[in-house]
Amino acid sequence: MRILLVEDDHQMAEYLRKALAEAGAVVDRAAEGRAGLLMAASGDYDVLILDRMLPGLDGLGIVRTLRASGNRTPVLFLSALGEVDDRVEGLRAGGDDYLIKPFAFSELQARVEALLRRGVAEAPETRLRVADLEMDLLKREVSRAGSPILLQPREFRLLECLMRSAGQVVTRTMLLEQVWDYHFDPQTNVIDVHISRLRGKIDKDFDPPLLHTVRGAGYMLRPG
Fold first, then answer.
1. In terms of CB atoms within 10 Å, which end of the chain has fewer, N or C?
2. What does the pLDDT average to over 72-95?
3. pLDDT of residue 124
4. DSSP assignment of the chain, as one string?
5. Domains in the chain, start-ordered, CATH in brackets?
6. pTM for the complete prediction?
């Protein structure tokens, strides 16, 4: 965990740096606003802890500049300015949390941990790949060995389902629920027809075959 602490009070900064280091963080410190902005913009930090009142450039200015440039690193404001309007201003400037001085370190630590939990959510997956088969979920494009493959919407959903479970058996029931929104087997050959079409498009002119039938179980997408 890397934290940038921007605090001009040397005694406060040293106390927080040592306490955060004991909690397992690597802490960099800036003593004034412009240096803090430069470090925040160029460093790879998990959380920024910013004093609201800073020489050179205040905490609000730092956050507004970072947010305008697309930097979304979580920010915890520290400030003696504790009125409702002050807290609202800090949050609206782009801060994620606001802690009023004086405070207990245990509360600051808990707030930092909460910000870290917010930041661990993975970005939505936009590309899937199995061997040389690739799917771009944003462009809705599929290719194998660099050659584009044209799929109908249902075929695309079917392949997406198989690629997301690559190396695992995907049962007929799973396909019916995820691709056709059926919650029972309608006793049709709809899956067999679409699997056959899909196999003809992604395997026919390529080697090795990727789409395999697992008899009595379902289907699996895997190399070889």
1. C
2. 91
3. 60
4. -EEEEE-S-HHHHHHHHHHHHHTT-EEEEESSHHHHHHHHHHS--SEEEEESS-SSS-HHHHHHHHHHTT----EEEEES--SHHHHHHHHHTT-SEEEESS--HHHHHHHHHHHHHHHTSPPPP-EEEETTEEEETTTTEEEETTEEE---HHHHHHHHHHHHTTTS-EEHHHHHHHHS--SS--S-SHHHHHHHHHHHHHTTTSSS--EEEETTTEEEE---
5. 2-119 (3.40.50.2300), 127-221 (1.10.10.10)
6. 0.54
